[in-house]
Amino acid sequence: MRLGLEGRVAVITGAGSGIGAGVARALAQEGSLIVAADLRETGIAPPLEVGAERWLAVPGDVSTPEGARRPVQAAVEAFGRLDILVACAGVYETGSLEEVDEKVWDRVHNVNLRGSYLCAKAAIAEMAGRGFGRVILFSSIAAQTGGGVAAGPAYVAAKAGIIGLTRSLAQKAGPHGITVNCVAPGVIDTPMTGVMGDDVKQEIARRVPLRRTGSPDDVAFVVAMLAAEGAGYLSGTHVDVNGGLHMA
């Protein structure tokens, strides 16, 4: 089943690795035109089956207004418009309450929460006059569980904030034909979760009803559905992709 993504112009931040790379690959395979953004554009190569004319890599620090606007501007300049934003860029933090100082707190919030806001703001401004848009942000299972042994308070708070941000933006952007949703992954095998250590991830996998951790492709499939033409009446919600680890 095709999702109606052929020819859609998509910006994916954090596209250099992990979930962001998986999302960029999945949308490209569905026929979308991709602006793949990361702190460094080097190494963000298109999949072999995707022509270079359908893929643009750009650098951008989403924690700054200029960096957040850059991929949106690049999409408009290269492809004429923007249809989809997937804000995957993020940093992870595992410190205890005592270990998380103001510097760590600010870095995690600047990238995860502030960056999501700045990217969404830039994208919605471009989409609003066109009557169509899909904005997909990223929360986490940590926002629902408090992080457990895996995530620290700065990360948990930032990802919880993204759920509230999603609901607020959905209300503001809805009259313009723009949906805003977020995805809340569980433990996904990416470089980011590599800091947990294999023993922690194996223990988590034993607790997952499906008895495994997730892959970027598991998350990318859900993102593609949220971006699809037929998802126009789904907005202001978060979708859990955690193998059944947390049900609430």
From TrEMBL:
Leader peptide range in chain numbering: none
Q: Coiled-coil region(s) at which residues?
A: none
> What is any Pfam family matched here?
adh_short_C2
Any one GO MF term held by the record is: oxidoreductase activity, acting on the CH-OH group of donors, NAD or NADP as acceptor
Q: Which domain of life is it from?
A: Bacteria
Keyword field: Oxidoreductase
Question: What family does the entry list?
Answer: Belongs to the short-chain dehydrogenases/reductases (SDR) family.
What name appears for this protein in its UniProt entry?
Answer: 3-oxoacyl-[acyl-carrier protein] reductase
